[in-house]
Amino acid sequence: EMTLSLGHILERGGKRAARRNAAESETVVRSRSFEVARLSVMARVTRAFLAVSASSLNRRLQEADVETADDIRASIGTMVTAGASPRAELIRSNLDYETTRLDLRDLERQEDVAIVRLSSLWGDINPRFSAVSGEIDSLFALPSREELLRRLESGPAMERMLALVDAREKDIALARAAGAADLLVSAGYRRLNADN
Question: Is the pTM of this model over 0.70?
């Protein structure tokens, strides 16, 4: 006995189109998720860069303060030597100078930490640079409130949320389509060999 049978399932209820639509929607969601993640990394790098730039600016300002405190201390020292100021003024100016130097050391450490944080975003905790270039004020101009709101409405995070909603709606359509019964069409050939 030999039997040959061929069959084909005829999907009903738009199952194939629903599967394709659901897969395309998931692709869009993944693409939007990638864009959101990319922008998040860019924002972290920008914040880290700005932190290094601000720390560097603070350190330079403090260096100027240390020089000023040293100049004042030298001037008061001259006045104390000449007998025009009491010795207590020299002690106070020395204390001010040492305080500004300690503040400078703190700011240098803060700058070092900011540099390591920026470098770590590239996976390197041993930075190969000691400074960044650029002025904080000239990096970019802030957009208006209306422009920010417009960007939020059309930004990747919003597009991702809309794509996610669309994907879930297509998943629901796929689930509904799965409820329709399929047809099985088959044809076959059977041959019987009989022994006499």
Answer: no
